[in-house]
Write a structure and sequence with these properties.
There is one protein chain. The chain is α/β, with parallel strands linked by helices. It is built from 4 helices and 5 strands. It has a 5-stranded parallel β-sheet with strand order 1-5-4-2-3, covered by helices on one side. Helix 3 links the parallel strand 4 and strand 5. Keywords: Transferase.
């Protein structure tokens, strides 16, 4: 895949191109940190729920995991891969990096 740095990380500058593949975007932040306006169209499934399998994520569609800095979403990706998911991607630097890049333009 041309979008990847490594197995699970998507460079933020490739996000626009990657979104053309219609991934399911999942925000894994805890409820107290979740803001639906941070990433339009994202569904909210906290890391805890992913860790314990409390979700109905599709295995046949790319899944882009996001959080504030990219740490919790990377962990969520590891849990999903361990559960047999192959089309899992983590946004490098998280939403914080996206906001910073948007503000510098």
């Amino acid at each position: 895949m041309p979008y990847l740095i490594d197995m699970r990380t998507l460079k933020s500058e490739l996000l626009k191109s990657f979104m053309q593949d219609n991934p399911l975007v999942v925000d894994v932040r805890p409820p107290e940190h979740y803001n639906q306006d941070d990433f339009e169209g994202a569904v909210h499934i906290p890391l805890h729920d992913i860790q314990h399998g409390n979700h109905n994520l599709p295995k046949d569609r790319p899944i882009l995991l996001v959080c504030e800095r990219g740490v919790m979403s990377e962990l969520a990706g590891l849990y999903l891969e361990a559960a047999g998911y192959e089309l899992v991607y983590n946004l490098e630097g998280g939403l914080q990096k996206l906001r910073k890049e948007a503000n510098s333009q």
